[in-house]
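Troubleshooting: if your tokenizer reports a length mismatch, compare your output against this known-good record of 285 residues.
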Amino acid sequence: MAIDAMAGGKQLAAMGRSQSATRVKQRQREADVLPVARPRRMRGNTSPGGATASAQVYQQLRAQIIALDIPPGAALSENDLASAFGVSRTPVREALLRLADEGLVEIVPKSGTTVSRIPYAQLAEAIVIRKALEEVAVREASLRATKSQFTGLWALIERQREAAKADDRDAFHAADEAFHAAIAEAAGYPGIWRLVNQVKVQVDRLRHLTLPEGGRMLRVTKEHAAVLTAMEKRDGNKAIAAMRGHLDGLEYSLPEIRRSNPDYFVGETGVFVLPGVAGRKTRSA
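Known-good structure output:
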């Protein structure tokens, strides 16, 4: 059966935010089970857009985990999720396996599934990889972008500014993502942004922790404007410097963010890994 995307997503997001607020306040060490409720069921095996039930579960859970609506450490029950989404356990299990491959959930046979904590040791390297890719994109976009593409980029900055003033973090994040994707498109290398998305999945959770900081969203908007101003002048070197400074700000804030949210991070050592090679555990309970 397909998912009622609107009903299921809204209910899970609301319940996840409630749980997240509780965790921040109480600083519990043990994860709580994600409470879920049954949304309205729909007929058929796919959504109107053609997405399978498994894909819909995956997309909604992924978005809510990255946005911290479902916080690091939260336990996920296949039965409860299947009930909430109005599907069998099979599409839920398939979605959780995909999330495990991305390092967003941890599956321990006979023990359970939890939302992975953010691997602190991997964040700095992920940011370095992202900077290298985006510097290529912004240099090429400075040379190739058309007038209409510049107009679209300024519109995205204005959308960010409006979202920041309204304190709409979801809208701000969406416009932020669209801005960087549009630069890659203007560069003629849209695949760069697809690769960046693979690399930055854990960094995105970190970014959501920074958005509540006073003035953070407006500061990011100004940094984007500096990047775009240099691009319009066809000054690739200055655009790269502005982009590098923009992305460096997140790296510099890592220690303080971790101190403020210790329950959300795991201090494991190790090298950065791309999605598909982490998340599933084989030990038994």
